[in-house]
Amino acid sequence: MAEAPRTAEDLFHQSLSLLLAKDMTGYAGLWAADGIFEFPFAPAGYPARLTGRAAIEEYLRGYPDLLDVREITARTVHRTTDPDVVVAEFEAAGRVVATDRPYRMRYAAVLTARDGEIASYRDYWSPLAAAEVLGGSDALAAFGGGDSRP
User: What is the model's pTM?
Assistant: First the structure.
């Protein structure tokens, strides 16, 4: 008997587990080959959209070297009328690797699943909050290195 494909909610919870495990290859592996990762609030100079699992994996490659996410302190999943779509709210906490400063950031995400993989993930994080946590807009720019990783 074939296993049922992972649901959008399953994928969201698995993504957080992989983030905590610092398994960025596994995290990127949740996406469909043509999956999309979007950052609607990305500041100027940062990518607003990544297309394809390979691009997502490349983007995430050094993430644990920037942020040491140690726990998810809050997590709420809202089911929608479409069983393939969830809206999730969560808070990540840990340390900024370069400065050892505490890191705490709230996120909202819209995840769409297709055939047990992430087809689309819209990641709503605040560049203003990220700049504050990282030590200012210059630190955010240096931290991001041209991408939107918080």
Answer: 0.86
Domain ranges of the chain: 8-142
Three-class DSSP category at 12: helix
Token reading at 126: 């605040």
Q: Quick check: 107 and 137 in contact, CB under 8 A?
A: no
CB–CB of 67/96 below 8 Å? yes
- Per-residue exposure over 94-124, b if at least 16 CB sit within 10 Å of its own CB, e if not: bebbeeeeebebebbbbbbbeeebbbbbbbe
Write the CA distances from 4 to 81, 110, 120, integer angstroms: 20, 22, 20
Structural element, H or E, at residue 122: strand 117-124
Residue reference for tokens 């490349």: 58
Three-state SS for 52-89 is CHHHHHHHHCCHHHHEEEEEEEEEEEEECCCCCEEEEE
In the chain, how many H helices and how many E strands?
6, 6
CATH fold for the domain made of 8-142: Nuclear Transport Factor 2; Chain: A, (3.10.450)
pLDDT tens figures, 92-114: 999 998 889 999 999 999 999 99
